[in-house]
TrEMBL record:
<feature type="domain" description="Peptidoglycan binding-like">
    <location>
        <begin position="120"/>
        <end position="171"/>
    </location>
</feature>
<keyword id="KW-0175">Coiled coil</keyword>
<dbReference type="Pfam" id="PF01471">
    <property type="entry name" value="PG_binding_1"/>
</dbReference>
<dbReference type="InterPro" id="IPR050465">
    <property type="entry name" value="UPF0194_transport"/>
</dbReference>
<dbReference type="InterPro" id="IPR002477">
    <property type="entry name" value="Peptidoglycan-bd-like"/>
</dbReference>
<dbReference type="InterPro" id="IPR036366">
    <property type="entry name" value="PGBDSf"/>
</dbReference>
<dbReference type="GO" id="GO:0030313">
    <property type="term" value="C:cell envelope"/>
</dbReference>
<dbReference type="InterPro" id="IPR036365">
    <property type="entry name" value="PGBD-like_sf"/>
</dbReference>
<protein>
    <submittedName>
        <fullName>Peptidoglycan-binding protein</fullName>
    </submittedName>
</protein>
<feature type="region of interest" description="Disordered">
    <location>
        <begin position="233"/>
        <end position="258"/>
    </location>
</feature>
Amino acid sequence: MKRSTTALVALGAVTAAVTGGVLLLGVGGGAGAAGPDDGLPPATATIVRTDLVLSKTVDGRIDFAQRRAVKAPVEGTVTVAAAEGTTVRRGQALYELNDKPVTLLYGPVPAFREMKVGARGSDVLQLERNLRDLGYGAGLYVDTEYGSDTEAAVKRWQKQLNRETTGRVGRGDVVFQPGEVTVVAADAALADQVGPDAPVLTVASTKPVVRARLEQTDGALTARGTKVEVTLPSGKTRPGKVAGTVRPEAEEGVEGGGQDGITVEVVLDGGSRAVSGEDAEATASVRFVSEAREGVLAVPVEAVVALRGENGGYGLQVVRGRTSEMVRVETGMTADGRIEVSGAGLRVGMKVGVAKP
């Protein structure tokens, strides 16, 4: 997915950037003046005040965060499955197995056992919270114990779903997810026989993200909170930040899958409004900013001269009318062909020598 990388010029290359006609100092921070028309550079550039940004731009695409597989807990035949793109909420069926709905409920604890009278635990607590929020909380005391009040609430819920009113909730009856989900892929087709732990659907949160792939060497750009600028398929630009990385096992079927790089999820300022009306099948452009310096003095990289002598360092050939002098400078960040400079007497608008184009 790599599209372009901003050129980063190593300072070692700067030392040979300017040749003939440049005065090289061998000592301290003094200046060497030349006579009229003597030692003038073949061309000049202007010192400017600007923002320097180190960045890398790669392709990405609009997706949804936190993709994960929904697996069948028991063996059966898929008789109904939610269509791709569907948003499923609490109390609605994600799919049907053997003509029985598997209902989405909210909670962090997966359904790992049959829940019935006498059961205790955090799974019971989240079941009771869901029953209450679905409108079956009359007479229900919400706690970690599956009592007769829980059984009665479950029976009322089962009756509403046209299911057998057993008062028990089996592993294959519900799926717990952190919240509402978007179905992004159907892993099992209608009438498929699925066994325990076989994927039926792939779901994700309803929060849109932009997914982009970076190389392993770009690990520093994947840190949570790294600022990015996204150019959407429509051409609009939106700021955002890195929300995290995606595990390889969660990337099956996603463009750029595999383990040769790092896939990151970027959240945009403005959330779902930021991508409203955008073509999710088209490519977006993601610019990762690794470092930025605002309002610094900068010159073209080729204006910086390596000074000879035991003190070494770097300088600029400052041109004043028909004379020039070498001024010692400190260098900083380099980006987009410019380098940050600082030193006594430097100011915006000064002319400095560069090699002839």
